[in-house]
Write a structure and sequence with these properties.
Number of domains of chain B: 2
Distance between the termini of chain B: 25 Å
Number of strands of chain A: 6
Radius of gyration of chain B: 21 Å
Shape of chain B: globular
Strand order of the largest sheet of chain B: 1-2
Order of helices and strands of chain A: HEHEEHEEEH
Radius of gyration of chain A: 28 Å
Helix content of chain B: 55-70%
Strand content of chain A: 5-15%
Oligomer: heterotrimer
Number of helices of chain B: 13
Order of helices and strands of chain B: HHHHEEHHHHHHHHH
Structural class of chain A: alpha+beta
Distance between the termini of chain A: 56 Å
Chains: A alpha+beta (186), B mainly alpha (348), C alpha+beta (391)
Largest sheet of chain B: 2 strands, antiparallel
Largest sheet of chain A: 4 strands, antiparallel
Helix content of chain A: 10-25%
Structural class of chain B: mainly alpha
C-alpha cells in the first residue's frame, strides 16, 4: 500500500522536474545554424572535394594506387619520354573523402579543398574530368616537361632521414625470414 | 443567438423552421472553419513549441517569419498525394473510418459556449452530450485498424480502443464535481457559475476540485491519444498505428481530427474548470470569445509541453494507471467535493 | 517456421478458446522500421502482446568489408573499419591498428598513444550519447534525442579539427596516428567540453530521462539478462556489465596506455529493479560517459612530446607472415580483429569479431515472454548498430 502512494508521488515529482528542464530551453537561444544563410567555418584540415592542380600533376599514378575504392581514373599513352597523360578524372560516386590520395603526392598537386555542397541531379555529372581530353595532352616525363615548358618539381637534396627516438625498425623493409606464427596468441 | 434567430425569422421573413435551419447552417460552417483553422495553426504551433523546447527553431523558411506558412504548405501537399487503398483492405470500412473519426470530434464542438449566449446548440444536456458523442471516435479507430489489413494497424487499433474506452471513465468522473457545484449540465450555466474572478473558477474552489482538474487533464491527454499515452500510434513501434495505410486526404482527416480533438478537450477543460469566457480580474470582460480562445491555447500549450517531455507509458501500465490509480482518485474527488459542499453550506 | 520448437507446439496444443483452432500471429518487424536501429529484421511469433519467438534476420547491410581487405593494403583498409560502427568510429580504427601492430611488433610513440586514447574516448562518448538518445526515443521521449545530438555536435566539431572528417575519420595508421594536434586551442576546448558535459548536461539527462518514473517503469525488470546467459552468449560491453559481470578489455586485457590511467568500471547493481534489466544497461552507459571524461582529462594532462607515427607514411606497411588476434573495448563491447598475413602488403584474411553481432544473439533467449513494447526497449538497450553486425 505504501509502495502505491510512493509510486504516485515519484511519478508526479519526476514528471514535474523533467518538465522544468524542458521549459528552461524555451528561454535559451537555439543552437541551430540557419544554413545556407549562416554557414560553419571549416577547420583547416577539413576534407572536402578533392582538387587536382593540372599544371603540377605529372601522372605518377600514386594517388590512383592509394585510393581504397579506386575512384581516380588516369589514362596515358606512350612510354618513357613520350608518355602523355590523356585523362584524369575522379569519380565522386565512389570517393569516400579519406584524403589518402593527397598524402603521398610528390608534387603537391592534389589537395582537399573545403567544398562540400555539390549536389547534382544526374549521377553521371559526378565524375569530374580534370582534364579536357580534346585539349593538349600533358607530358609526364621530367625531361619532356622541362622541354615543353611545364612546371617541374624542384630537385631536393636527398637528406638522411632523422631517426625518430625510441622506435624499432619499422616494418617497411623486407620481413625477417625467421619469424613464423609469432603473433598467434588468440 | 437570439438576435440571429429574430433577424432571420422576422426581418428576412423565413419563418421559424427556416430561421433554425439557416442559423444551424451558419454555425456549422463557422465551427468547421474554426476547426480547420485550428488544425492549421496548431500544427505550426506544435512544431514551433517542440523546436524551442528542444533547443532548435522549428520551421523557419516557408513564409519568411518563423515558417508560419508551413502548415498551409503541408495541407496543399497532402491534398496532392495519391490515394492508395490496400488491395486486401475492406473498402467500405476503410473509406468510412476517417469520416467517423472526424465526425466524433466535430459533433462535440456544437455544445461549446464561446461567449455569453453564443453557442451552436444550447442543450440542457450539454456536457453529457459532449462526452457521449466523443466516443464515436473509438469506433472509427477500430474500423481503421481492422480495415487496413495490416497486423501492425490492428495492434494500434486494439490498443487505441482499450485506452480510449477506459479513460472516458476518469474523464467523466472528474467532471462530476463541477456538475454538482453548478447543478446543471448546460454548458452555459457551468461557465456562468464561475463568474467573479479567478478565485471563483472551479479549479480553485476546493482542493478536491483541483485534483479533479489534474485528473481531467491527464485523462484528456489519454483520450486524444497524445503525449505519454500515444501507444496506439507509437512511432517507434508501430510506425503509425491505425493510420499507417492511409494516404492523402484520408490521412489529412485523421490529422485534422487529432488537432480538433486536442482543441476540444482543452476548451472543455477551460469551460468546466478555468472559468470559460470570464477574465481572471472581475469586471474586465470586454472580449469574452477572445479570452476563451486564449485560455484554450494555453491549455493546448500545456498539453504539448507534457507530450515533448515525458516518455511513453506501456499498454498494461496505462491500464493499471487508469483503473487502479485514476478511478479511485476521481471517485474520492467526487465524494470529497460533495462533503466539502455540504460542510461549507454552499450550493452553486 | 520451426514446428518442432517445444514452446510453439506447447502453445498450439493448449485449448485457448474452446472449439476454435488458435495460431500464433506471425509478425515481421521488418527491415524498414523506426525502432530497429538500422536494417534489422525481427521475425516475431506473438500471442496478442506477448512474444513467443524472436528470430533476428541480419545481412541487409552486408558490404563485404572482410573480402575487400584481401585486395587492399593495410593502411588503406583503415577507412573500411570506420564504417563498421559508424557512431563511434575511432574505437574501430583502434582495434584494427592494434592487431596489425601486434603482428608487425611496431612500437607506437607515446604521444600517438595518448592522442589515440583521447580521440577514442571522445568517440565512445559520442556513441553512448546516441545510445541514450535513441533509447529514449524508442521509449517515446523525443527531447533527450535533441539534447544528446547537441552535445555530440560539439564532439564532432572537435574531432573534425583534429582528423579532418566529421563522422568517418581515418585517423589512425598502424604505428601511430595520422596527424598531430591542430594549431588552435584544441586541448583547452576538449577540457571545456568535458567539464560542461559532466557538470551541466549529464545531471540534466538524469533528471529528464534516467530518474523519470515512467522511464523507470518501462525499463526496470524488463528483459533481464542474468550473468550466466550473458557469459554463455558471448555478450560484452555494457550488456555484460549491466548484468553485474565486471569485465572490460581496458582493465582485464590492457592495451595502449590504459594501465597508467585511473578509472572505474561501472556495473549494473539492480538499483531500480533486478540486476541485468534494461535500466542497468542504460545506467552503465551513463556512468561510462563520466568515466570517459575522467580518462580524457588524465590523458591530456599526461600528453608527452614526440613524434606521432613510427613509420614513414609514404611507404606501405609490410607485415611478416603470421596471425594475430587483438581485442579492444569499443563503445558497444569487445571488438576483435584476427589478421592472417602471408608476408605481403595485403592481408590473407581479416576476420572481425564484432560486438553487436554477438550481443544480438541473446535476443532469441531473453526476448521470449516479453511484450512487443518491451522487445523494443530490449533492442534499444542492447545498442546494436547494423554496420557492425553485417560488416
Amino acid at each position: 500500500m505504501a509502495q502505491y502512494f510512493a509510486d504516485i508521488y515519484q511519478a508526479v515529482s519526476s514528471a514535474i522536474q523533467g518538465m522544468g528542464i524542458t521549459i528552461k530551453h524555451i528561454y535559451r537561444k537555439p543552437v541551430t545554424l540557419q544554413y545556407p544563410d549562416e554557414r560553419q567555418v571549416m577547420p583547416e584540415r577539413f576534407r572536402g572535394f578533392v582538387h587536382n592542380d593540372m599544371t603540377k600533376c605529372d601522372s605518377c599514378n600514386i594517388c590512383a594506387k592509394l585510393c581504397p575504392v579506386d575512384c581516380i581514373y588516369i589514362e596515358s599513352e606512350g612510354k618513357g619520354k613520350e608518355r602523355m597523360m590523356t585523362r584524369y578524372a575522379i569519380d565522386y560516386n565512389k570517393c569516400i573523402w579519406c584524403s589518402l590520395c593527397t598524402e603521398n603526392c610528390h608534387t603537391g598537386s592534389i589537395t582537399m579543398s573545403h567544398d562540400y555542397d555539390h549536389s547534382v541531379y544526374d549521377r553521371r555529372t559526378l565524375v569530374y574530368e580534370f582534364m579536357d581530353p580534346r585539349e593538349e595532352k600533358i607530358p609526364c616525363h621530367r625531361a619532356t616537361r622541362t622541354e615543353m615548358g611545364w612546371w617541374v618539381e624542384p630537385k631536393e637534396e636527398k637528406k638522411k632521414p632523422v631517426p625518430a627516438p625510441a622506435t624499432d625498425t619499422p616494418a617497411t623493409d623486407a620481413p625477417p625470414a625467421t619469424e613464423d606464427d609469432k603473433g598467434d596468441d588468440s | 443567438m437570439e438576435a440571429m434567430y429574430t433577424f432571420f425569422m422576422d426581418k428576412a421573413g423565413m419563418g421559424e423552421l427556416g430561421a433554425h435551419i439557416t442559423v444551424a447552417a451558419i454555425m456549422a460552417s463557422l465551427m468547421f472553419i474554426v476547426m480547420a483553422l485550428c488544425a492549421i495553426i496548431f500544427t505550426w504551433m506544435e512544431r514551433k513549441v517542440a523546436g524551442f523546447l528542444q533547443s532548435r527553431y522549428g520551421p523557419m523558411r516557408t513564409g519568411r517569419w518563423h515558417g508560419w506558412a508551413q502548415a498551409v504548405a503541408d495541407m496543399l501537399k497532402i491534398l496532392g498525394k495519391e490515394d492508395i487503398i490496400p488491395a486486401e483492405a475492406d473498402k467500405g470500412l476503410f473509406v468510412f473510418a476517417p469520416l467517423l473519426v472526424l465526425l466524433g470530434s466535430l459533433l462535440a464542438w456544437a455544445a461549446i459556449p464561446w461567449a455569453p449566449d453564443f453557442v451552436a446548440a444550447d442543450l440542457d444536456l450539454g456536457l453529457f452530450y459532449i462526452f457521449a458523442v466523443s466516443s464515436l471516435v473509438v469506433i472509427g479507430i477500430l474500423m481503421a485498424g481492422w480495415a487496413s489489413n495490416n497486423k501492425w494497424s490492428l495492434y494500434g487499433a486494439a490498443r487505441g480502443a482499450a485506452q480510449m474506452v477506459s479513460y472516458e471513465i476518469p474523464l467523466a468522473l472528474a467532471a462530476i464535481p463541477v456538475v454538482m457545484y453548478t447543478g446543471s449540465l448546460n454548458t452555459q450555466d457551468i461557465v456562468i457559475a464561475q463568474q467573479g474572478g479567478i478565485w471563483n473558477w472551479f479549479f480553485l474552489r476546493n482542493p478536491f476540485l483541483f485534483v479533479a482538474f489534474i485528473m481531467y487533464f491527464i485523462a484528456s491527454i489519454a483520450e486524444t491519444n497524445r503525449g505519454p499515452f500515444d501507444m496506439p500510434e507509437t512511432e517507434s513501434e508501430l510506425v503509425s498505428g491505425y493510420h499507417t495505410e492511409y494516404t492523402g486526404m484520408r490521412f489529412a482527416f485523421f490529422f485534422l481530427a487529432e488537432y480538433a480533438n486536442l482543441f476540444l478537450v482543452s476548451m472543455i477543460a477551460v469551460m468546466i474548470f478555468l472559468g470559460g469566457w470570464w477574465s481572471p480580474i472581475p469586471g474586465l470582460d470586454f472580449a469574452p470569445a477572445l479570452t476563451f480562445i486564449i485560455k484554450g491555447v494555453i491549455m493546448v500549450f500545456m498539453n504539448m509541453w507534457v507530450r515533448w517531455t515525458l516518455p511513453r507509458v506501456r499498454v498494461d501500465q496505462l491500464m493499471h494507471l487508469c483503473w487502479k490509480v485514476m478511478i479511485p482518485i476521481t471517485l474520492i474527488c467526487v465524494i470529497g467535493a460533495g462533503l466539502w459542499m455540504m460542510a461549507s453550506g454552499a450550493a452553486s | 517456421m520451426a514446428t518442432n520448437d517445444t514452446r510453439l507446439t506447447g502453445w498450439a496444443d493448449q485449448d485457448h478458446v474452446p472449439g476454435l483452432k488458435s495460431e500464433l500471429l506471425e509478425l515481421n518487424m521488418g527491415p524498414q522500421h523506426p525502432a530497429t536501429h538500422g536494417v534489422l529484421r525481427l521475425l516475431l511469433h506473438t500471442d496478442g502482446e506477448i512474444v513467443y519467438k524472436v528470430t533476428p534476420v541480419v545481412g541487409y547491410l552486408h558490404r563485404c568489408a572482410e573480402k575487400i581487405a584481401e585486395g587492399v593494403d593495410y593502411k588503406q583498409w583503415v577507412v573500411y573499419t570506420d564504417r563498421f560502427d559508424y557512431l563511434g568510429p575511432v574505437t574501430n580504427n583502434h582495434a584494427y591498428v592494434t592487431a596489425v601492430e601486434k603482428l608487425t611488433e611496431l612500437e607506437v610513440p607515446a604521444r600517438a598513444e595518448h592522442l589515440r586514447v583521447v580521440t577514442a574516448e571522445l568517440s565512445r562518448i559520442a556513441s553512448h550519447l546516441i545510445a541514450l538518445a535513441t533509447f529514449g526515443l524508442d521509449m517515446g521521449a523525443w527531447t533527450p534525442l535533441l539534447y544528446c545530438f547537441r552535445e555530440r555536435e560539439v564532439i564532432l566539431n572537435l574531432l573534425e579539427r583534429i582528423a579532418g572528417g566529421r563522422m568517418l575519420y581515418n585517423y589512425m595508421v598502424p604505428g601511430g596516428v595520422r596527424y598531430d594536434l591542430p594549431q588552435d586551442n584544441w586541448v583547452s576546448d576538449v577540457l571545456e567540453f568535458v567539464t560542461m558535459l559532466e557538470n551541466k548536461k549529464l545531471p540534466d539527462y538524469n533528471t529528464l530521462l534516467t530518474y523519470n518514473k515512467i522511464f523507470i517503469e518501462r525499463t526496470s525488470d524488463v528483459a533481464i539478462i542474468d550473468r550466466e546467459t550473458a557469459i554463455d552468449y558471448g555478450c560484452t560491453g555494457p550488456v555484460l556489465r549491466g548484468s553485474g559481470v565486471q569485465f572490460d578489455c581496458r582493465r582485464n586485457d590492457p592495451y595502449s596506455i590504459y594501465p597508467q590511467l585511473d578509472f572505474e568500471i561501472p556495473v549494473g547493481k539492480g538499483e531500480m529493479g533486478t540486476v541485468g534489466d534494461c535500466w542497468d544497461r542504460y545506467i552503465v552507459r551513463v556512468r561510462e560517459i563520466e568515466q570517459s571524461c575522467r580518462i580524457i582529462r588524465q590523458a591530456l594532462e599526461q600528453l608527452p612530446e614526440g613524434p606521432v607515427h613510427a613509420i614513414e607514411l609514404k611507404k606501405p606497411v609490410r607485415v611478416p607472415a603470421g596471425a594475430a588476434y587483438s581485442r579492444t573495448e569499443a563503445a558497444k563491447g569487445e571488438l576483435g580483429h584476427y589478421i592472417i598475413s602471408d608476408g605481403g602488403t595485403k592481408p590473407f584474411r581479416n576476420k572481425v569479431r564484432s560486438c553487436s553481432f554477438c550481443n544480438l544473439q541473446v535476443i532469441e533467449k531473453v526476448g521470449v515472454g516479453q511484450m512487443v513494447s518491451d522487445l523494443v526497449a530490449f533492442v534499444g538497450s542492447l545498442d546494436i548498430v547494423l554496420g557492425e553486425i553485417d560488416r
